UniProtKB/TrEMBL annotation, chain A:
L-glutamine binds at D100. InterPro entries: Asn_synth_AEB (IPR006426), Asn_synthase (IPR001962), ASN_synthetase/amidase (IPR051786), AsnB_N (IPR033738), GATase_2_dom (IPR017932), Ntn_hydrolases_N (IPR029055), Rossmann-like_a/b/a_fold (IPR014729). This is asparagine synthase (glutamine-hydrolyzing). It comes from Winogradskyella psychrotolerans RS-3. Pathway: Amino-acid biosynthesis; L-asparagine biosynthesis; L-asparagine from L-aspartate (L-Gln route): step 1/1. GO terms for cellular component: cytosol. It comes from the Bacteria. One of its GO terms (biological process) is asparagine biosynthetic process. It holds the Pfam family Asn_synthase. Belongs to the asparagine synthetase family. Its EC number is 6.3.5.4. It catalyses: L-aspartate + L-glutamine + ATP + H2O = L-asparagine + L-glutamate + AMP + diphosphate + H(+). The lineage of its organism: Bacteria, Pseudomonadati, Bacteroidota, Flavobacteriia, Flavobacteriales. The active site is at C2 (for gatase activity). Gene3D superfamilies: Glutamine Phosphoribosylpyrophosphate, subunit 1, domain 1, HUPs.
Amino acid sequence: MCGIAGFYNFNLSTEDKAYTLRQMLTRIKHRGPDESGIYLSKAVGLGSVRLSIVDLATGTMPLSNSNDSLWIVFNGEIFNHIELREELLAKNHTFKTHSDTEVIVHLYEEYGPEFLNKLNGQFAIAIWDKNKQELFLARDRVGIRPLFYTTVGDAFIFASEIKSFLEFPEFRPKISAKALSEYFTFWTTLSSNSAFEDVFELPPGSYMTINANSKTIKTYWELPITKPNDYKYNTLEEASEAFESLFTDAVKLRLRADVQVGAYLSGGLDSSITTSFIKKILPDNLRTFSIGFTEKDFDESSFQNIARDYFKTQHSSITCSPKDISENFKDVVWHSEAPLLRTAPAPMSLLAKSVRDQNIKVVITGEGADELFGGYNIFKETKIKLFWAKDPQSKYRPLLLKKLYPYIPQISKANNTILKLFFGYKLNETTSPIYSHLLRWHNTSRINNYFSKDYKEAIQNYNPILEIEKQLETKFKDLDYLTKAQWIELNFFMSKYLLSSQGDRMAMANSVEGRYPFLDHRVIEFCMNLNPDLKLNGLNEKYLLKKLMKDRLPESILNRPKQAYRAPIQSAFFQETCRPI
Amino acid sequence: MPPYLNTMLSEEKITEFGIFNAAYVSQLKKKMTLNKHVSEIDNMAITAVLSTQILYDLYINKSIPALQENELVVLNITIIDESSGKRINHEHNT
């Protein structure tokens, strides 16, 4: 795990370029405090700060192929590097190190950009091809690791985090009103835009080539979409067997490291499943970590204790107060580099800090299970609304919605009339490709009302909800409601918010690498080929997982009502003295 | 609220940065302070305003301290690839 930065076509003296690159790397040294290195040629500069996890002794970057015609800096992990190395050895490639980074450069040499399809990992890659005089950038399938780029004059610059660009001469960022409008609707931007004008993120599952004549982006992987009747897994038995085998391998690959690997244990189903699978492979001495809250509405400590006792792990937990959140919020924004609508990233940063303080660099977590197995309430909400829309005058159907949000008193205690008012927004627009998210996005977009006159004018003709509705109309034709809602959650919320502001940025701010077995692309492809009833059965979420884990998890965790991970806001910023003890 | 966050939500900074309507933000702050419970949207709105103000201050105003020479990363390896050949320095700052 590392941070990378670099530039192309930046015409200064070698000394000045080296100095700029050192400055850019310094801004992201939290991503790789162990060592750093740079490669400079007339056309290009590549830099890396490294968090040593695989091949601690000889994996220093930048690295090259045998004849030094390809140079690479790399952020992330290639979990199947051992198998890929064997494949390359059989093709007479020779290696100088044992690192996964060197495997990438040889794969590129052997297969060109097609090699990306062979990788099982989480990564952002930059390769300088001297023969072609071409810079190659690539990012993992779902966007676990970040990669930003921009241009300043004739120079093209890239980095793991935007803050690196602040050290590039003449870089003058501006907030984008259009991007803000998207953040204040979807929690993220729609396309590859960042919060800053002309600063872009390379989209997940894509690669970019930059040379003297062109700058091209190509997609190498997309989330698979399966139409009804084409699902590959339709029975519990066949799906359970396939998942057990796939997920065991996904976890096994993610335990590969030359340092100790720990795990988050939140007291929920997903992290309990990952911990259960880890324990199956490594029965002893697993370190687990959790966070609780002083405010009981947010606290899951009792479930964390049940999980800890059940798995008998070496467990550490910390408790987060509203004050902890407010005191860390400035740092959280600095690291997330984006507007936030929740304070939830702050406790994640504190949790990562506690992990690092105990000398653990790598943690396995349950991210992705909610999106892939229908865990979020928005999936159930959509199912109920589709049922209600068939009889809009029903007195009883909207009452089903009360059960979904026990932590929001305005909903859980609401009567039929209030529920109809709140949830009835565009109830009958069931053919909209974004039906599942219409209400949520409409409500969130009310934040746009707080814009100043100038900003309102700047976005006056821009309606991001209509924009996305148009984009998805053809793509979503003939799909079931769950696939559509999952696609939206995976592509927008997970990739662009959860894995970024709440994931990579908070962990890497503390030099900790997160690994996500549910986001192994084989697991994702399996889930998108799963009959929806095996995900959301009636209103029972994660049906397959619960059936599979029936005798392998405590009953109280297996069947606990879904609790969204949230953190205090009002008490963090305004009522510190009123918070309950 | 820590003083820095308070400053970021002050009428002066809201007006100076020009992104949000100072009067609306002031009303929202009042609501957050006086009411025991506020809506999910109000909670999201105040977080959105505060985080955007901080983002502006850090990245546009560049209120972060400039890097000092002694803070810069120490390079374990520097590779200078010139037409005359490759130069590699280990454990050396350029």
